[in-house]
Each structure stands twice: as C-alpha cells, then as structure tokens.
Amino acid sequence: MPSFQLWKERDAALKWHLSTSIAESKVLSRMERRVLLFLFAYYDRARGRIEYPGHEIFAARHHIPPEQLQAALVALERAGLVMPQPLPSNLLAYLPNALLLQEAYERARQAHPELFAS
C-alpha cells in the first residue's frame, strides 16, 4: 500500500475512534461533547494543536449559540480536555488532551492492526 494511502487510512481510523471516544463520554454534557467533536475538525496534526477560528465563526458555522459555546469551552478547559494557547498573531489555538488522543490511537491500533504494523 502506498505510504500516502496508509497515512490517509490511519488518519481516518484515528478520527473515527476519537469521535467515538468523545461521543461515549458520560462526564461531558451533550453540548460539551458536540463542541469538542467540532473542535477536532480543526486539529492540525503537523502542529499538534486545534486551530480555533474564533467564537463568532465557530458558533455560526456549527449552529451553536455563542453563550452556550462559551460555557462549553470553559467547561472543556476546566476538565483539561483542551488548553488554550494564545498565538503571537492574537488568535487562539487549543492544545488537545494527549490522553484523549492516545486512547483514540490505541483503539484504532487494536481495531486495525494492519494499518499500524509498519
């Protein structure tokens, strides 16, 4: 299998298991799970961070009332699932919880050992 296709399939498996882990969470509210799932749509694997587009854009794009978005982000920060990382350009990024990413990796590796054999 060509390496670019292998990476694409690994990424798809990781995203699937990450979203499953978030969706199965019993400690997060429905809105917190929804916001966290959408945040990972902005995850940049090369930089290891979530490139947050800003409250107004995020809320409009994902049809979330701004006050509920703010409350969910604060709850996710307090829970340690994301950590704000101010950037020099005065934009905001989030660092994802490494344990959450590790669990998704382990689930994907167990479900698809052929993708992670090399």
Describe the structure.
The mean pLDDT is 87. The protein has helices at 3-23, 30-39, 55-62, 66-79, 98-111; strands at 43-44, 49-51, 82-86, 92-96. It contains 5 helices and 4 strands, in the order ααββααββα. Strands 1-2-4-3 form a 4-stranded antiparallel beta sheet.
- The pLDDT mean sits at 87
State the name of the first-level CATH class.
Mainly Alpha
Number of E strands: 4
Distance between the termini: 11 Å
What is the molecular shape?
Answer: globular
Spell out the CATH superfamily: Winged helix-like DNA-binding domain superfamily/Winged helix DNA-binding domain
Tally of helical segments: 5
Structural class: alpha+beta
Percent strand equals: 5-15%
Task: Report the radius of gyration as a whole number of Å.
Answer: 15 Å
Give the gist of this structure.
This protein has 118 residues and is of the alpha+beta class. It has a single domain, classed as Winged helix-like DNA-binding domain superfamily/Winged helix DNA-binding domain (Arc Repressor Mutant, subunit A, Orthogonal Bundle).
Identify the notable features of this structure and list them briefly:
118 residues; alpha+beta; 13% strand; globular
